Amino acid sequence: MNNSEKAVDVLQELNQFVNDRIEGYKHAASVTKDPAHASYYKDLINQSQNFSNEINSSISSMGGSTQNSTTAKGKIFRGWMDVKSSITGSDEEAVIKSNLTGEEWAQKAYNDALDHRGELPQNVVQMVEKQKQASLATCERLRQMKESAD
């Protein structure tokens, strides 16, 4: 496998986590009872869609197939959260906690992608780092929201 093929694989995997992020925030926006939180989650959906478009553009430019699916882990997690909320209700703290868990998974996915920085073009490394920083800022905001909800 050459560097371009490896880079495509890395980005396809990363984009599955970004797609998980989109689905997670769509769910959060639909169940939250707080209008400010719903607005924030909708902003994060748009941000994530932009991230996915950037990643898919990079994949295409390297000759790979774009990635529009989500991870199995994310599907299982969202299913579990649906079951949990049907039993306990969708309180704001639970919604925020599930978003925080998803964002922490995204951080791991960005770190995993950056572990392959030697196989990625410099502009792609910069894109991944920029997205990782935005995800990190989201983690911080979600932590603050969680503390306010406690």
Architecture overview:
- It is elongated, with a radius of gyration of 16 Å.
- It has a single domain (3-149), classed as Ferritin, core subunit, four-helix bundle (Ferritin, Up-down Bundle).
- The mean pLDDT is 87.
- The chain is mostly helical and 150 residues long.
- It has helices spanning 3-31, 35-61, 72-88, 92-114, 122-149.
- The protein is built from 5 helices and no strands.
Number of helices: 5
- Describe the largest sheet: none
Q: What structural class results from the helix and strand content?
A: mainly alpha
CATH fold name, please? Ferritin
Can you give the mean pLDDT?
87
CATH homologous superfamily label? Ferritin, core subunit, four-helix bundle
Name the poorly predicted regions.
Answer: none
Summarize the amount of helix as a percent range: over 70%
**Element-by-element helix/strand order:** HHHHH
Strand content: under 5%
- What is the class in the CATH system? Mainly Alpha
The N- to C-terminal Cα distance equals 49 Å
Number of beta-strand segments: 0
Question: Tell me, what's the shape?
Answer: elongated
Organism: Pontibacter actiniarum
Domain DUF2383: 7-115
InterPro entries: CHP02284 (IPR011971), DUF2383 (IPR019052), Ferritin-like (IPR012347), Ferritin-like_SF (IPR009078)
Protein name: DUF2383 domain-containing protein
